[in-house]
Write the structure tokens for this entry.
Amino acid sequence: MIERILPIRSLAAAALGLVVSLPLSAFAAADPACDPMFDAFTKLLRTPNHQYMSQSSETDALKHGGKIRTSESISTSDSSYLKINDEWHKIPITAQDMLKQQEEARQNSKEVCHFLNDDQTEGDAAVYDSHSETGKGKSDLKIWISKATGLPAREEIDLDLGGEAGKTHSSVRFDYDNIEAPKDVKADPQGVSK
């Protein structure tokens, strides 16, 4: 099942198993400083995009010789796709489903967010960070949001889920140009459902 550790997360992050379900219902009202981040991800869900992700983790280092895992996702105006083991798969979750989850998460979030600075290296982007802790783990996110479009340009995610799950670091880059459904799409990937 694709669910989020926090309300602010990418589809590619879910593709790599980065995202886990944490109970959001116990959270209080959202930090208003998070609004630019929520707005950027809400806009992302309404905008065709291509996400490129890499992830490293302590667990992977132990199991797979420390290799970095990579993944991609493409969201068009009506469908979403994940690239798993060099094959594209259409996933059964819609942008409308994700928008609904985003709005629910926004209303219940207890993330703490900050504006950090402006960064010209990402095409005049505003840089924000967020931190969240629950009984199941900690998450830190740093995101670059384009001032021109209001869309995410890049994000860095650090999770600490403790125990065997360990720590992960993920990087996501977003592209919005010439987005089309991938060719040679396979059936829905096993284990990915609404």
Summary: DSSP finds four helices and ten strands in the chain. The two ends are 6 Å apart (CA to CA). The chain has a mean pLDDT of 77. Residues 70 and 165 are 18 Å apart (CA to CA).
